[in-house]
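Hey all, quick one. A colleague (J.T.) asked me to put the 4'-phosphopantetheine job into the tracker so the inputs and the C-alpha coordinates live in one place instead of scattered across chat threads. No bug as far as I know, just bookkeeping. Sequence used:
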Amino acid sequence: MHRIAVVPGSFDPVTLGHIDVIGRTAGIFDEVHVLVVHNPGKTALLPISQRVALLEQSIVEASLPGSIKVTSWSVGLLVDYCTEVGASVIVKGIRSQIDVAYETPMAIVNRNLAGVETVFLLPAPANAHVSSSLVRQVASLGGDVSPYVPKAVAEFLQKG
Ligand code: PNS
Protein backbone atom coordinates (compact mmCIF):
# COMPACT_ATOMS: atom_id res chain seq x y z
CA MET A 1 0.00 0.00 0.00
CA HIS A 2 1.26 3.47 -0.97
CA ARG A 3 1.05 5.55 2.23
CA ILE A 4 0.85 9.35 1.95
CA ALA A 5 1.58 11.46 5.06
CA VAL A 6 0.76 15.15 5.40
CA VAL A 7 3.01 17.38 7.53
CA PRO A 8 0.95 20.54 8.10
CA GLY A 9 1.90 23.78 9.78
CA SER A 10 2.30 27.51 9.53
CA PHE A 11 6.04 27.21 8.67
CA ASP A 12 6.43 30.95 9.26
CA PRO A 13 9.34 30.43 8.72
CA VAL A 14 10.46 26.78 8.42
CA THR A 15 12.98 25.88 11.15
CA LEU A 16 15.60 23.15 11.54
CA GLY A 17 13.08 21.42 13.84
CA HIS A 18 10.56 21.24 10.98
CA ILE A 19 13.22 19.92 8.57
CA ASP A 20 14.14 17.26 11.14
CA VAL A 21 10.50 16.07 11.39
CA ILE A 22 9.95 16.22 7.59
CA GLY A 23 13.08 14.10 7.05
CA ARG A 24 11.98 11.52 9.64
CA THR A 25 8.52 11.37 8.03
CA ALA A 26 10.07 10.78 4.61
CA GLY A 27 11.98 7.84 6.10
CA ILE A 28 8.74 6.17 7.21
CA PHE A 29 6.11 6.95 4.55
CA ASP A 30 6.10 6.47 0.75
CA GLU A 31 5.13 10.06 -0.03
CA VAL A 32 5.16 13.24 2.06
CA HIS A 33 3.11 16.38 1.46
CA VAL A 34 4.37 19.36 3.44
CA LEU A 35 1.31 21.59 3.68
CA VAL A 36 1.48 25.30 4.50
CA VAL A 37 -1.77 26.24 6.23
CA HIS A 38 -2.86 29.72 7.26
CA ASN A 39 -3.40 29.79 11.03
CA PRO A 40 -5.82 32.65 11.79
CA GLY A 41 -4.70 32.59 15.43
CA LYS A 42 -1.21 33.83 14.52
CA THR A 43 0.11 37.11 13.08
CA ALA A 44 2.03 36.16 9.95
CA LEU A 45 5.58 37.24 9.12
CA LEU A 46 5.82 35.83 5.58
CA PRO A 47 3.23 35.39 2.81
CA ILE A 48 2.25 31.78 2.15
CA SER A 49 4.02 31.69 -1.26
CA GLN A 50 7.30 32.74 0.39
CA ARG A 51 6.94 30.05 3.07
CA VAL A 52 6.43 27.44 0.32
CA ALA A 53 9.51 28.69 -1.59
CA LEU A 54 11.70 28.64 1.54
CA LEU A 55 10.49 25.13 2.42
CA GLU A 56 11.33 23.89 -1.09
CA GLN A 57 14.82 25.43 -0.94
CA SER A 58 15.42 24.08 2.59
CA ILE A 59 14.39 20.52 1.64
CA VAL A 60 16.85 20.59 -1.29
CA GLU A 61 19.55 22.11 0.96
CA ALA A 62 19.09 19.30 3.54
CA SER A 63 19.13 16.58 0.81
CA LEU A 64 16.13 14.89 2.41
CA PRO A 65 15.37 11.39 1.07
CA GLY A 66 12.19 10.15 -0.57
CA SER A 67 9.26 11.77 -2.31
CA ILE A 68 8.47 15.14 -0.70
CA LYS A 69 6.24 17.83 -2.16
CA VAL A 70 5.42 21.24 -0.73
CA THR A 71 2.05 22.87 -1.24
CA SER A 72 -0.46 25.11 0.54
CA TRP A 73 -4.11 24.87 1.53
CA SER A 74 -6.50 27.66 2.35
CA VAL A 75 -9.96 26.52 1.27
CA GLY A 76 -11.15 24.40 4.18
CA LEU A 77 -10.27 21.78 6.71
CA LEU A 78 -6.88 20.09 6.82
CA VAL A 79 -8.66 16.73 6.55
CA ASP A 80 -10.36 17.87 3.32
CA TYR A 81 -6.88 18.16 1.79
CA CYS A 82 -5.98 14.70 3.18
CA THR A 83 -9.11 13.16 1.65
CA GLU A 84 -8.51 14.91 -1.68
CA VAL A 85 -4.99 13.50 -2.08
CA GLY A 86 -5.65 10.13 -0.40
CA ALA A 87 -3.48 10.76 2.68
CA SER A 88 -4.35 8.59 5.70
CA VAL A 89 -1.92 10.13 8.19
CA ILE A 90 -1.04 13.56 9.55
CA VAL A 91 2.42 13.90 11.14
CA LYS A 92 3.26 16.44 13.83
CA GLY A 93 6.53 17.07 15.66
CA ILE A 94 6.32 17.06 19.45
CA ARG A 95 8.86 19.07 21.45
CA SER A 96 7.28 18.95 24.91
CA GLN A 97 4.17 18.24 26.97
CA ILE A 98 2.90 21.66 25.85
CA ASP A 99 2.85 20.43 22.24
CA VAL A 100 1.06 17.23 23.31
CA ALA A 101 -1.64 19.31 25.04
CA TYR A 102 -2.01 21.58 21.96
CA GLU A 103 -2.01 18.77 19.39
CA THR A 104 -4.16 16.12 21.11
CA PRO A 105 -7.58 17.80 20.62
CA MET A 106 -6.76 18.57 16.96
CA ALA A 107 -5.71 14.94 16.40
CA ILE A 108 -8.96 13.62 17.87
CA VAL A 109 -11.09 16.12 15.91
CA ASN A 110 -9.29 15.22 12.66
CA ARG A 111 -9.86 11.51 13.29
CA ASN A 112 -13.54 12.09 14.08
CA LEU A 113 -14.00 14.30 11.01
CA ALA A 114 -12.45 12.03 8.42
CA GLY A 115 -10.78 8.97 9.98
CA VAL A 116 -7.34 10.49 9.44
CA GLU A 117 -4.88 9.36 12.13
CA THR A 118 -2.16 11.63 13.59
CA VAL A 119 1.34 10.35 14.27
CA PHE A 120 3.58 12.28 16.68
CA LEU A 121 7.33 12.25 16.00
CA LEU A 122 10.09 13.44 18.32
CA PRO A 123 12.74 15.76 16.85
CA ALA A 124 16.42 15.46 17.75
CA PRO A 125 16.94 16.92 21.26
CA ALA A 126 19.09 19.69 19.73
CA ASN A 127 15.94 21.00 17.99
CA ALA A 128 13.59 20.63 20.96
CA HIS A 129 13.64 24.34 21.86
CA VAL A 130 13.36 25.71 18.31
CA SER A 131 10.12 27.43 17.28
CA SER A 132 9.03 29.72 14.46
CA SER A 133 7.70 32.27 16.95
CA LEU A 134 11.11 32.47 18.64
CA VAL A 135 12.79 32.84 15.26
CA ARG A 136 10.34 35.62 14.27
CA GLN A 137 11.06 37.48 17.49
CA VAL A 138 14.87 37.17 17.33
CA ALA A 139 14.90 38.12 13.63
CA SER A 140 12.65 41.14 14.14
CA LEU A 141 15.00 42.46 16.83
CA GLY A 142 18.09 42.01 14.65
CA GLY A 143 19.47 38.86 16.32
CA ASP A 144 21.23 35.91 14.66
CA VAL A 145 18.77 33.12 13.79
CA SER A 146 21.24 30.98 11.83
CA PRO A 147 21.51 28.25 14.54
CA TYR A 148 17.76 27.59 14.28
CA VAL A 149 16.86 27.80 10.60
CA PRO A 150 18.06 26.40 7.25
CA LYS A 151 20.64 28.53 5.40
CA ALA A 152 18.06 29.65 2.83
CA VAL A 153 15.85 31.07 5.59
CA ALA A 154 18.71 32.78 7.47
CA GLU A 155 19.86 34.45 4.23
CA PHE A 156 16.31 35.52 3.35
CA LEU A 157 15.66 37.02 6.80
CA GLN A 158 19.02 38.84 6.79
CA LYS A 159 18.20 40.45 3.44
CA GLY A 160 14.85 41.73 4.71
O1 PNS B 1 2.32 25.42 12.81
P1 PNS B 1 0.97 25.56 13.49
O2 PNS B 1 0.48 26.99 13.42
O3 PNS B 1 0.98 25.03 14.89
O4 PNS B 1 -0.06 24.67 12.63
C1 PNS B 1 -1.41 24.54 13.03
C2 PNS B 1 -2.27 24.06 11.85
C3 PNS B 1 -2.19 25.06 10.71
C4 PNS B 1 -1.75 22.72 11.37
C5 PNS B 1 -3.72 23.94 12.37
O5 PNS B 1 -4.16 25.20 12.77
C6 PNS B 1 -4.69 23.36 11.32
O6 PNS B 1 -4.72 22.15 11.15
N1 PNS B 1 -5.45 24.21 10.62
C7 PNS B 1 -6.34 23.80 9.54
C8 PNS B 1 -7.82 24.05 9.85
C9 PNS B 1 -8.50 22.80 10.40
O7 PNS B 1 -8.57 21.79 9.76
N2 PNS B 1 -8.99 22.91 11.65
C10 PNS B 1 -9.77 21.87 12.31
C11 PNS B 1 -9.00 20.70 12.82
S1 PNS B 1 -7.79 21.03 14.03
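Adding what we noticed when we looked at it: Residues 8-10, 37, 39, 42, 77-78, 106, 109-110 surround 4'-phosphopantetheine (CB under 6 Å). The helical segments are 16-26, 48-61, 78-85, 97-114, 132-140, 151-159.
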